[in-house]
Amino acid sequence: MGDVESLSLKEQLERDPFARYLGIRVLDVGEGFAKLRMPVRSEMVNFMGTIHGGAIFSLADHAFAAASNSHGTTAVALHLDITYFSVPPAGSILTAEAHEIHLSRRTATYRIEITGAEGQSVAACQGIAYRKQKDQVDSDGNFGKA
Amino acid sequence: MGDVESLSLKEQLERDPFARYLGIRVLDVGEGFAKLRMPVRSEMVNFMGTIHGGAIFSLADHAFAAASNSHGTTAVALHLDITYFSVPPAGSILTAEAHEIHLSRRTATYRIEITGAEGQSVAACQGIAYRKQKDQVDSDGNFGKA
Amino acid sequence: MGDVESLSLKEQLERDPFARYLGIRVLDVGEGFAKLRMPVRSEMVNFMGTIHGGAIFSLADHAFAAASNSHGTTAVALHLDITYFSVPPAGSILTAEAHEIHLSRRTATYRIEITGAEGQSVAACQGIAYRKQKDQVDSDGNFGKA
Amino acid sequence: MGDVESLSLKEQLERDPFARYLGIRVLDVGEGFAKLRMPVRSEMVNFMGTIHGGAIFSLADHAFAAASNSHGTTAVALHLDITYFSVPPAGSILTAEAHEIHLSRRTATYRIEITGAEGQSVAACQGIAYRKQKDQVDSDGNFGKA
Fold this sequence. Notes:
4 copies of one chain form a homotetramer. Chain A has one domain: Thiol Ester Dehydrase, Chain A (Roll), CATH 3.10.129.10. In chain A, 20% of the residues lie in helices and 37% in strands. Chain A has helices spanning 9-15, 17-22, 53-68, and strands spanning 25-30, 33-39, 75-84, 93-103, 107-115, 121-131. Chain A has a 6-stranded antiparallel sheet. In chain A, strand 4 and strand 5 (107-115) form a beta hairpin. The longest helix of chain A is centred in the middle third of the chain and has 16 residues, at 53-68. Mean pLDDT of chain A is 88; it is low at 135-146. Chains A and B meet through helix 1, helix 2, helix 3 and strand 3 of A and helix 1, helix 2, helix 3 and strand 3 of B. Strand 3 of chain A pairs antiparallel with strand 3 of chain B.
C-alpha cells in the first residue's frame, strides 16, 4: 500500500470510494481538464425506469473534482448546476469531459459535458471551485471557504 | 408483488433502485413537499475523506423528484443547482426537505435544503421540473421537453 | 413606421426599449446564434465605481433573447445564471456571443460569453428558454409556461 | 458633497449611478438583509412589450449587493441565477427582498425574491458573494477572487 501523498491524482481519484461504488473510471486528467467514464448499471435507475439524475450528476461532479484539483492546489466545490437534455438508454456508457473556463487565485470555473455512447448530449454542467490555502482550514467544518 | 400503478408515490420512491442503493428513506411526501433522509456511509466518501458532492446532490435530487411528482403529473428534471456550505462528519445522517416555490401548468420550481444531524446547513439546492403531458413523449429520448 | 410583424428579428431587437436605453447593438443574429455589443457608459457604474453586474447581465440576457428567438418560435426566459470573472475598465466595450447548445421542441439552452475590448473573459452565462406555442398564452400572466 | 467613506451603506447604494438610472430605491438594509423597490418604466420594456429580464435581474442584483455588503466587509458577486415566474404588467412596482442563507469568512449566499404590486411572485434569485480582504486586490482586474 503506497502512501497517499505519493499517489498520482488519477490514482487518488480512482481509489475514491464513491467513484468506485459507481464504477467511474478516470480516462485522462491534465491541467484544468479531465475525462471520465461510467457505465449505467441497473442500480442507477430511478422509479421511472431511467437513469437517476443523481448518478449523472455524480459523474459530472467527479470530473469537476478531477479538473479542479489538477493544479496541485486543493479545490473544493462551491456551486454546481446541471441541465438535463436526454435520457441515455439502459446499458449506456456515459462520458464526462471537464474543461476549465476561468482560473483565478481563489476560484476556478469549469464546464462539464456528459455524452452518451453515440456522442449524444445527455447533460451540461457548470461548477465553481474554491481553491484552498493550507492555513485556511476552518475548524468548524466550513470547507474551503475559510 | 403489487402492480406498479397501484403503488403510492412514497412506495415507488422507496423502490427506486438508486435511492435504495444509497439508503435513502422517504419520511414524508405531500403536495409540493417531501422530506427524505440518508445516512452517510463509508462508500459515499471521496478521495479527500469527506462525503462526495454527488451523494449529497443525489439525496437533494430525490427529494426534488418526490415533491415534483406529488401532484399526479409526471415531472422530470430540467435544471438543478447546488451550493455547498459545510462538510458533514462521517457517520452523519442527512435530511433533505423540498418545498415548491412556484407551480405552473408546464414547469415547477423547488428549493431543497440539506441539513446535518444537528440541523446545520450542509447545502442548498434549487430545481426546475418540466411537467409532462401524456401525449408528449418524445420518440428520440428527449425527456419531458417534447 | 413599418408594421412590427414585418420587421426582421434584428430590427425588433434593436428597437427594444431597454436595449436602446443601454446602447446595445445587434452585430449578428442567426439560427441559434447572436453577437451583441454594449459600451460601458458612466450610468452603468455601481457604488464601488465598477460596472454594475445588472448591466453585464442585461447584455447577456439580450443576446440570449436574440439567439432563442432566432428560429421563428417565440421563446421566453425560464432560467439564467451568470458567473463573473473580471471587471472591465471604464470606457470598455463589451461583446456578448450566445450559442445554442441544445434545442428541443419546448426548451432550448444557450451559453453566452461576455468579453472585454481585448477579448478578456468578463463573465459566462447560461440560459434556458421555454418555447411557446401560440395557443398557450396564459391568461393570468404566467409567461410561456402555459 | 460628503466624503464617500462617511456615507451610510444605504446612501452609497442610492447614489449608485446604475441604480439611480433604473429608479431603484433602498427601503431597508440591515445585517444580511435588504429590501428595494423599482417602478417598471417604459424604458424597461423589451421587444415583446413586457419588462426586460435584465431590468428584473438588475433590481435583484442590487438587493444582493446591499445585503452582501451589510457586514462592513466588501463583497463582490461571484455567481447569480434567476428563475422567472410571471410577467408583471406595465406600470408595476417591483419589490426585491434579499436574505442571507449562509455566511462564512470568504463567501456568503443570498436568496432574493422579486414580487409585484399585489405580492405575486415575479422571479427568484440566488447569489454567491466573495468577501474580499483589503490586501487581496488583484492588480489585473480579477475582482474579489484574489
